[in-house]
Design a protein that fits this description.
disordered N terminus; six-stranded mixed sheet; Purple Acid Phosphatase, chain A, domain 2; 5'-nucleotidase,  domain 2; alpha/beta
């Protein structure tokens, strides 16, 4: 049973809110641009502009977070230094709050705080309250602007509207549409852009989330929502903001993944865009990526990092900028005491249960590698142990901060809280039978999802995870020609042979689909939730030691590959 925090509004007020949210789709918009905009797009500064503001002379600081995934507490974080994994303590919402306020105090009238999505999901407290426990914590930051990410839809459309609607920040997204059998069908859910005058500079922000959300996640999550590709409307909105609203700067706030964002930045539709503030793939862009038409940044994940973009505008044009990706370091920024208490209040109903230890690991649990991860090897090993299929599958998840081994004991406790971090959706295990040919075709599709030469076709996740199977492939080959060999239980894959597979159920998938593999024979839900499977496995094993072991081998990249993005100077570190 899901528990609710004390500050939750009544059922009647929730219904009233949903009615108001639906009415957003009927609000007046800009008729020359579109037939319907969900909310009016207005200048957020009611006072008239002074002559100096018309000149566009001033300085602006944009503080940027994304992919926090409801990580409440300071945690272990992964860094890649001199070819090795290094772990440091980073993050924690209360630490982040102190850090943000330290910059705000320096120039309060020149600073904006923006979040690029995936805030309400990724921790037990968030999942067990469907994001509601995070609402007061988010509002404590006084964000100026939010973009819904791909995981904002996990609690379904109405709940997304409720959670985001109770945020005090403005919300934008130019490619999420009502897809419903009512009068709101075809209307934008959120206003497409937001305009703010700050520090003597008029800035327009346009928002886009990943158009592939219904394919990369459980289809039921986004029921009632239609997504368009960003390149359909970017040029239109940029023109409007530049020519008609006379914005000095135009920014895209996107939750599409670094590869898609770089692809968009190389598209002429981005002419006139100053920066893309990106999100989704948890990449750490420390130096802006210079593309043909604009620059791209992305600021990591889990509240471990804060992006700071300082902009200087002279005579209405961008003159200089300075971008830094800063560690949220608890040794530099002490936690904000008020937010500490708010976090304790939100977590208190669940603390006793979540702190229970369910097992130990003698190796670090990490999920940052693109091809294979120790964390997902643990999950798929548990499936193999419980169900004894030929192949166990797990989606190419990215969320979950690392868990490092304690130097004193040589191991680390795995708690129920950390299990929720690894799997914040407690799905049912589902099994079925497929041929070797189906597995081969599916692997080619999954490699295409992760490494398509056209960035707009890349899912935000990494390559799919598995146990019981070793796959050798070449990433830079053409679609359909990447897989070189497949070995299942020590034997080469037989295209005609049938194999039994087990994976997490994706809500909304057809009965004969498992982990995006279609036309599966004899599909059956096991009645067992993944959390219980993993808990049972850890209870039996006591201590596990998952590591990289060559389940996924790329001939043209190392097993420690840390990014999907190729062809630039970008490095994840």
């Amino acid at each position: 049973m899901k528990k609710k925090i004390n500050e939750v509004v009544t059922a009647s007020s929730r219904r009233d809110f949903l009615k108001r949210s639906a009415l957003l789709g009927m609000a007046a918009g800009l008729a020359p641009l579109q037939s319907a905009i969900s909310a009016p797009v207005v200048n957020t500064d009611p006072e008239p502009l002074s002559p100096s503001l018309h000149l566009g002379n001033g300085k602006v600081t944009l503080l940027y977070t994304s992919d926090i995934h409801a990580k409440l507490h300071t945690h272990d974080e992964f860094f890649w230094e001199n070819g090795k994994a290094v772990y440091k303590r980073r993050g924690g919402l209360a630490v982040l709050k102190t850090m943000v306020e330290s910059f705000r105090r320096k120039a309060p009238e020149q600073t904006l705080l923006i979040d690029g999505g995936d805030y309400y999901h990724g921790h037990a407290v968030a999942s067990l309250t469907e994001g509601e426990a995070l609402i007061p914590l988010l509002n404590a930051f006084n964000y100026d602007l939010l973009l819904p990410g791909n995981w904002e839809v996990v609690y379904k459309k109405k709940k997304m509207l409720y959670d985001l609607g109770h945020s005090s920040a403005a919300k934008i997204c130019a490619n999420m549409w009502h897809n419903s059998n009512d009068e709101y069908n075809g209307d934008l859910i959120y206003q497409p852009y937001w305009i703010k005058i700050v520090g003597g500079v008029k800035i327009g922000f346009i928002g886009y989330t990943d158009h592939l959300i219904p394919k990369r996640q459980s289809p039921a999550y986004s029921e009632g929502i239609r997504f368009d590709h960003a390149d359909k409307t970017v040029a239109k909105y940029v023109k409007y903001l530049r020519e008609y609203e006379a914005c000095h700067l135009v920014m895209l706030v996107t939750h599409m993944g670094l590869a898609q964002q770089v692809g968009l930045a190389n598209n002429p539709v981005c002419t006139g865009v100053d920066f893309i503030l990106g999100a989704d793939t948890h990449e750490r862009v420390r130096v802006p990526i210079e593309c043909k038409y604009t620059k791209v940044v992305e600021c990591g994940a889990f509240g471990s990092f804060l992006g700071k973009l300082e902009l200087e505008v002279a005579d209405g044009k961008l003159k200089n900028y300075q971008y830094d990706l800063l560690d949220v370091d608890p040794e530099i920024y002490p936690p904000d005491p008020e937010l500490v208490e708010m976090i304790h209040t939100a977590a208190r109903p669940f603390d006793e249960e979540l702190k229970k230890v369910i097992g130990y690991s003698s190796t670090p649990l990490v999920r940052y590698f693109v091809l294979e991860t120790p964390m997902d090897n643990l999950l798929t090993d548990a499936i193999m142990w419980k169900f004894k299929p030929d192949v166990a599958l797990s989606n190419g998840f990215r969320f979950c901060q690392p868990l490092n081994v304690e130097s004193s004991s040589g191991k680390v406790a795995i708690t129920k809280e950390f299990l929720w971090n690894m799997l914040p959706v407690n799905s049912e295990a589902k099994m079925g039978v497929v041929t070797g040919q189906q597995i081969l075709d599916w692997l080619e599709k999954e490699l295409q999802n992760a490494f398509a030469k056209d960035p707009s076709k890349r899912f935000g996740g990494w390559f799919v995870r598995y146990a019981g199977m070793q796959v050798n492939f070449t990433i830079n080959n053409e679609f359909g020609k990447r897989v070189n060999s497949v070995v299942i239980k020590g034997k080469p894959l037989d295209k005609l042979k049938e194999y039994r597979i087990v994976a997490c159920e994706r809500e909304g998938d057809p009965d004969d689909t498992i982990c995006r593999m279609e036309k599966v024979k004899s599909p059956m839900r096991t009645g067992l939730l993944m959390h219980s499977v993993i808990e049972e496995y850890l209870a039996a094993k006591k201590t596990v030691a998952p590591k990289l072991e060559g389940r996924a081998i790329a001939t043209d990249f190392p097993s420690t590959l840390l990014t999907q993005l190729q062809g630039t100077t970008y490095e994840f570190r």
